[in-house]
Design goal:
Elements (H helix, E strand, L loop, with lengths): L9 E5 L2 E3 L10 H12 L4 E5 L23 E4 L12 E4 L3 H9 L6 E4 L7 H14 L5 E3 L2 H5 L1 H7 L4 E2 L8 H9 L29 E3 L2 E2 L10 H4 L4 E2 L2 H15 L3 E4 L10 H13 L4 E3 L11 H10 L1 E9 L15 H14 L6 E7 L6 H13 L3 E6 L9 H7 L25 H12 L3
Parallel strand pairs: 1-3, 1-6, 6-7, 7-8, 9-12, 12-13, 13-14, 14-15, 15-16
Antiparallel strand pairs: 2-5, 4-5, 10-11
Helix pairs in contact: 8-9, 9-10, 10-11, 12-14
């Protein structure tokens, strides 16, 4: 780009959530803030508005911190078309729309707006967000990326209101998009983008940094039938352990961050050699930190030495990718854990000093054709092991191996609109289930070991 020309201003927006329930469990628009960092590195003026911000100045004092987590603001919404019979409250999560409009008006007029998207069934929040942007600047182009944009690209093109929908990682087409919609000429682009030469995402653009998400790798070598990781990132690649430790210490020393959430889909994969080097590097720093694993850990990689290392490094919230304790009946789901793996990992973690409240086992519920008895057996199996069952309701995801089976079992037209894939409505609910059954299972899971 000509050094004398004025560089276009870019606005990045994290949209509202429309859902039956939502809670900030170390959530952050990491990909969007990575794009902001790439733009800033080339001296583009960048602004950021987070429609989910829990720390907006108009909301009063900063809410109490729970290891980086907390509730979103919310306002009631009508139930979406097709879900009118659901006997549950539906809400907008995030700041009130009038605050968003005010924030837009207080922001310098951008030349391009980048909007991200997360869960596919949050498409309604994306549409509302882009609609409000259009009210303020009808002629400013809007580009949509992220998970919904990738997995339901055709729906996003028809319904989101964006001028362009980008599928896949946005960093690879970012400067092409900026040139296309602003007319800017960008002469100095990164020659190649690898995990080690990407800048740290621009988390400092947030009003308050409650936690930092960390990604030591992208993708996953496993191809579980229910998971979209292989669709969103077909190639598995890793950062150097030293770069990961450097980033963690940067946010801790520069911004005082204590809570870090690993966003990896395969943090421990490969006998944990890569992870061990990261954890050893963290321990050498002698900093008091807390680490959380919302994306689940591969159980078979946890032995006595790994558990001790994690404990010393400061791991605080552990989530194990168990999915089902019917270990002999899972070949159509995944091949990532056996009964022996599960019990060895739990024993190792307990011996290392982790409390039962810190160790949760994710259990997939509401799978196509799954029976009530199967779910209950899994919950009781986790309770018997002395740790916490964490029920995760199945979300049908296009392009995954289980998608066709989900479509066949669902009473909703999953292919028509992603709102029907919302896991809160149990979209593949078997005829034998009832909402009373679900309530009973939740109570059983909460009953504790």
């Amino acid at each position: 780009m000509n050094g004398q020309a004025k560089k276009p201003r870019i606005l990045c927006v994290n949209p509202f959530i429309h859902d039956f329930a939502a809670y900030d469990v170390w959530a952050s628009p990491m990909g969007l803030l990575l794009l902001a960092a790439l733009l800033r590195d080339r001296s583009f003026p960048v602004d950021y508005i987070d429609c989910l911000c829990r720390f907006h100045p108009r909301s009063g004092k900063i809410p109490p911190d729970k290891q980086g987590r907390g509730p979103y603001l919310k306002t009631p919404l009508p139930l979406p078309p097709g879900l009118e019979t659901m006997k549950r409250r539906f809400s907008r999560y995030g700041i009130p729309p009038e605050w968003f409009r005010e924030d837009l008006k207080n922001t310098l007029r951008p030349d391009l707006v980048l909007v991200t998207s997360m869960m596919t069934y949050w498409a309604g929040g994306v549409r509302e967000t882009i609609g409000i942007i259009r009210e303020t600047w009808p002629d400013v182009p809007v580009v949509l990326g992220g998970i919904y944009a990738t997995l339901y690209a055709d729906h996003a093109r028809r319904h989101s209101g964006a001028d362009r929908v980008v599928e896949g990682p946005g960093e690879h087409v970012l400067f092409e998009v900026v040139e296309e919609f602003t007319g800017a000429r960008i002469e100095t682009r990164p020659e190649s983008l690898t995990l080690d030469n990407l800048p740290y995402p621009a988390f400092d653009l947030q009003r308050h940094i409650a936690h930092i998400p960390v990604r030591t790798s992208v993708g996953c070598p496993n191809r579980c039938a229910y998971c979209a990781s292989g669709v969103l990132a077909p190639t598995f690649s890793r950062r150097s352990p030293e770069k990961v430790v450097d980033e963690i210490m940067f946010w801790h020393r520069r911004h005082g961050v204590i809570d870090f959430a690993f966003y990896d889909d395969a943090l421990l994969t490969g006998s944990g050699i890569h992870a061990r080097r990261i954890f050893e590097g963290i321990i050498e720093q002698k900093a008091t930190l807390r680490f959380h694993t919302p994306n689940a850990l591969h159980v078979r990689e946890i032995d006595d030495s790994m558990a001790v290392l994690m404990r010393k490094a400061g791991f605080y919230t552990l989530r194990l990718g168990v999915e089902s304790t019917d270990f002999s009946e899972r070949k159509n789901l995944d091949q990532k854990v056996t009964e022996t793996d599960f019990h060895r990992a739990v024993t190792a973690l307990k011996n290392a000093g982790f409390k039962k409240e810190q160790i949760g086992a994710y259990l997939l519920t509401g799978l196509p054709g799954q029976t009530l008895a199967e779910v209950e057996r899994s919950i009781r199996g986790v309770l018997a092991a002395g740790i916490t069952p964490v029920m995760t309701h199945y979300t049908p995801i296009p392009h995954t191996a289980l998608w066709d089976e989900a479509v066949k079992h669902s009473p909703f037209p999953l292919e028509k609109d992603p709102v029907y894939t919302n896991n809160s409505i149990w979209p593949c609910l078997d005829q034998g289930f009832s909402w009373e059954d679900m309530t009973r299972l939740r109570r059983l899971a909460r009953s504790g070991p």
